[in-house]
Automatic annotation (TrEMBL), chains A, B:
<feature type="domain" description="HTH crp-type">
    <location>
        <begin position="146"/>
        <end position="212"/>
    </location>
</feature>
<dbReference type="InterPro" id="IPR036388">
    <property type="entry name" value="WH-like_DNA-bd_sf"/>
</dbReference>
<dbReference type="InterPro" id="IPR018490">
    <property type="entry name" value="cNMP-bd_dom_sf"/>
</dbReference>
<dbReference type="InterPro" id="IPR012318">
    <property type="entry name" value="HTH_CRP"/>
</dbReference>
<dbReference type="InterPro" id="IPR000595">
    <property type="entry name" value="cNMP-bd_dom"/>
</dbReference>
<protein>
    <submittedName>
        <fullName>Crp/Fnr family transcriptional regulator</fullName>
    </submittedName>
</protein>
<dbReference type="InterPro" id="IPR014710">
    <property type="entry name" value="RmlC-like_jellyroll"/>
</dbReference>
<keyword id="KW-0804">Transcription</keyword>
<dbReference type="Pfam" id="PF00027">
    <property type="entry name" value="cNMP_binding"/>
</dbReference>
<keyword id="KW-0238">DNA-binding</keyword>
<feature type="domain" description="Cyclic nucleotide-binding">
    <location>
        <begin position="10"/>
        <end position="76"/>
    </location>
</feature>
<dbReference type="InterPro" id="IPR036390">
    <property type="entry name" value="WH_DNA-bd_sf"/>
</dbReference>
<dbReference type="Pfam" id="PF13545">
    <property type="entry name" value="HTH_Crp_2"/>
</dbReference>
<keyword id="KW-0805">Transcription regulation</keyword>
Amino acid sequence: MATASTTQRLFQQFEPELLKKVQQVGLVRKFKAEEYLMQTGQQIRSAVLVLDGVIKVFREDDEGNEVFMYNLHPGEACAISMTCAARQLSSQIMAKALVDTEVLAIPVELMDEWALKYRSWYQFVLETYRSRFEELLDTLDHIAFRNLDERLLWYLKQHQKSLKSNFIKTSFTDIALELNSSREVISRLMKKLAEKGHVKLHKNEVEILNLKM
Amino acid sequence: MATASTTQRLFQQFEPELLKKVQQVGLVRKFKAEEYLMQTGQQIRSAVLVLDGVIKVFREDDEGNEVFMYNLHPGEACAISMTCAARQLSSQIMAKALVDTEVLAIPVELMDEWALKYRSWYQFVLETYRSRFEELLDTLDHIAFRNLDERLLWYLKQHQKSLKSNFIKTSFTDIALELNSSREVISRLMKKLAEKGHVKLHKNEVEILNLKM
DNA sequence: ACCCTCCTGTGATGCTTATCACGCCCAAAG
DNA sequence: CTTTGGGCGTGATAAGCATCACAGGAGGGT
């Protein structure tokens, strides 16, 4: 199957035996762009490894405000899914496919078993945590210290990197939602960025020209 | 020794054999109030379990701004120390004792060994991550969505809980630093809180009367 | 063609918070 | 006693952003 070579490429650090098991028991699940992989309060029964695509992980509060946490890419895993799965807790987060996405779901029971058996799995879990933690701290820094114009730039850079594209097909309204701002403000800031030659604005789409400042 | 009963009480979930090892190899280190346990860029060579006291974990950027992350209490462990130790990385965070504090340092080599050997240790590491992650998310929520007055209340509640005391001996200047605000603003907000009967202001000290709102 | 909806641009206004500029009190040091 | 420095209170001012109000354009459906 196609998954075998993909997993092998993405998870080279796994011991051969572990890799084989991952391929055997991992359940491939596909999601369309914009589809939700996980929603607040949902029970988690498996750890999620990303095979292809991009997953946006974020939080939403009672009033519909959202906090962006980080994006997940192929070869990465969702830290939340790991702990919550391990402890049978419901998640407090949302995960949404930004493009068509493919993940590998590992049943929770095996997580524990593997951790005790395969050093590379344990290391992988730890590394997953470490990276997500770092990313979350980075997000925290930006929200705490940066003004909206810098955060907007950061948003654009993130999407450019995650989607490997200079075209972002998102409405200002959605960008505003993600940055906890308002459409009008984003509109004005985008205009400034366009004037400075960093972006070019199209209908329903932002083209990134040059974000070096 | 005194540590034996303390560790037993705090880490009941550990298997007896693991508990014994923890007591054998754990190095007890004491810190005075206000002392730093860890500073940005410092190499980490052991995981830290808190035995007594309170540790404030936070970040500091180039310009001296700080972001509060969470407080650690007896029975808890520093997630950062765990991953960084495991991967021999330097920390990007600061940790400071809020009161006289006692910790148990576990050499990094044993972390890996125990993870493969003791289910309860692996569970403990996972749980540590999960809790710190949750706390970090909580902090993120507050910074992203709450106004300064609510964040000040949150700050007071945290200290009340962590220090188990209704008296906070901290200058407004320091509180402002922690909340990324300015002394004047804290002064005005405190006055409001005092007028509403939530706190009573003393020289160099805030007395918490009632934070229920 | 027409309507309807979604996306965008722009001015006006006000809230929250940062910053500046003082002056006051108190305590420790000279 | 006087000086000095740290903590505090308070007004004035301004930056950053949210919100409201309104208008125009583009596209899809009927």
